[in-house]
Amino acid sequence: MGKKEITARMAKDAGITLHQAQGAFASLLDGIREDLKKGNKVNLSGFGSFEIKVREARKGRNPKTGESIDIPGKKRIKFNPSRQFKNSL
Questions:
Q1: pLDDT tens string for the chain (89 positions)?
Q2: May I ask the CATH architecture of the domain 41-89?
Q3: How many CB atoms lie within 10 A of CB 16?
Q4: Which backbone phi and psi does 49 adopt, to 5 degrees?
Q5: pTM recorded for the entire structure
Q6: DSSP assignment, residue 65?
Q7: What are the domain boundaries of the chain?
Q8: CA-CA-CA-CA torsion sign (19, 22, 23, 24)
Q9: Which positions ≥6 away from 47 have C-beta within 8 Å?
Q10: Interatomic CA distance for residues 49 and 65, integer angstroms
Q11: CA 8 to each of CA 14, 27, 31, 58: distance values in angstroms, whole numbers, following the listed order
Q12: What is the CA 37 to chain-centroid distance, rounded?
């Protein structure tokens, strides 16, 4: 299921136009993105939570040459599904 299918279902279930559903979906994603940028954890009750985790820089090894390399640190988005959501599957 992609963005088109999600917004079409939102429009049908809520009794709104497709354009309104697309706007609501975009607003939801923008809100999640902005809160994550601020360093906040985003909780969607009954679905799960999103948070930023920082992966520290580390040493690695090139498997082809065996050469030691530096792997830079980076941020990643972690999603934890809620217990209710996991049990519904």
A1: 999 999 999 999 999 999 999 999 999 999 999 999 999 999 999 999 999 999 999 999 999 999 999 999 999 999 999 999 999 99
A2: Irregular (4.10)
A3: 13
A4: -135, 150
A5: 0.75
A6: T
A7: 1-39, 41-89
A8: positive
A9: 81, 82, 85
A10: 40
A11: 10, 16, 20, 44
A12: 12
What pairs with residue 53 in β-bridges? 76
Cα gap 3→63, rounded to integer Å: 38
User: How much is the pLDDT for 46?
Assistant: 93
Amino acid at the residue 47: F
Structural tokens at position 52: 């930023």
The DSSP bridge pattern shows strands 68-71 and 58-61 to be antiparallel
Name the residue with tokens 């607003």. 27
